[in-house]
Amino acid sequence: MRFLRQSMIGLFLAALSLGLLVYAAYVVQAAVQTRLSAQSTPPPVRERVFTVDLQRAEAVTIVPVLQTFGEVSARRTLEVRAAVAGRVVALHENFEDAGSVAAGDVLLRIDPAQTQAAVDRLRADLADAQAEARDSARALDLARAEREAAAAQVSLRETAFRRQVDLAERGVGTAAAIETAEIAVSAAQATVLARRQEVARAEARIDQAATRIARAEIALAEARRDLADTELRAPFDGTLSETAVVEGGLVAVNERVADLVDPSDLEISFNLSTAQYARLLTPGGALIKAPVLATLEGSGTGLQASGALARVSAGARDGQTGRRVFARLGAAPGFRPGDFVTVEIRENPLENVVELPATALGPDGTVLVLEGEDRLAAVNVTLMRRQGNRVLLSADGLVGRDVVEVRTPLLGPGVAVQPTQQQARLWQAAGDPVPQEG
């Protein structure tokens, strides 16, 4: 009986525990259902206000600066070539790469022995031709004198012939005497003809002598030029490069021995797009003489030289657009041909423009300005120029308005904003009301 009583008590306690567990599960389920079925009231949402940097738009006149890259070149470059062949007997003391020479300096001298001998021979030939000319002139004078004497003999013989004819008509002379006088006249006339031929030959001899003198003078002048060409002189002040000859070496005709560059007369060549080139033209289509600043970048420092636009290429290169423009530099110490430089060109002034950071201009061509109730509004603008990280916009519709300096994807028309603390202090100093956070 005792065992049965304890078993019934254990069974009762187990059933009671199970009932309590079922009741607890029911209570929890009911609470969850009640919570899920109840309507929740969301808390009020507060509008987000963004802090922005604003800039007051002011109309100003700005000189745009066009920036590009160019290459420095020398306006005067000469290839020094040997005009005659021979052995180099002397060189300038600075005849070496990067050696400086002055105008008129003898760069090198070629052995003048052969050319000097040629000059001496041709000088002697010219003297012979001149002597022949003088001899021909004397022979012509003699031939003319003999022709005049022969002509006088003809006159005398004709007078004697007429006298014999007159004597024969009066019955005093004879036929033999007349015939003898006539033969003498004919012989005298033949002598005159021979003397005329001598004069013609003397005149031809003079012409030949003159031609011989002219040829001798031409040959002598050419030989003297060859003799002068044995000395190569610098036509202008400059610096030597690519020297390729040594003292005692042989050079051929037209052999390149060095290059002479004038480092004080430099220019820059650079390419511009068609739109950029069009901004540098006058109404008549001529290139303006705009100031140019060239900068040769270095490690921490840069060399600068100023100049002006000079000319533009006659046509576009094959496969390229735009124009190639040249600018002449003034004093440019430290610059050398071949340097790659940064070029800044000052264009014509732009009036009534607003200068803003490039980040203020959106891709749709608008800027954000501050409107009433401290909200933003989009304004369409006209882009005039880009200047590095700045933009120049037309001032129409922007003057006096506060423009957002940096646009982000979170900013747009209708968004509430407030200026930064620095901007607020600037407004307070200017006496303008400061927008308050909404």
Question: Features of this protein?
Answer:
conserved putative lor/sdh protein from methanococcus maripaludis s2 fold; OB fold (Dihydrolipoamide Acetyltransferase, E2P); 29% strand; disordered C terminus
General description of the model:
- With 438 residues, the protein is an alpha+beta fold.
- It has four domains: 90 residues, conserved putative lor/sdh protein from methanococcus maripaludis s2 fold; 58 residues, RNA polymerase II/Efflux pump adaptor protein, barrel-sandwich hybrid domain (OB fold (Dihydrolipoamide Acetyltransferase, E2P)); 115 residues; 81 residues.
- It contains five helices and 24 strands.
- The strands form seven sheets. It has a six-stranded antiparallel β-barrel with strand order 4-13-16-15-14-17. A four-stranded antiparallel β-sheet has the order 3-18-22-21, with no helix packed on it. The protein has a four-stranded antiparallel β-sheet with strand order 5-12-10-7, with no helix packed on it.
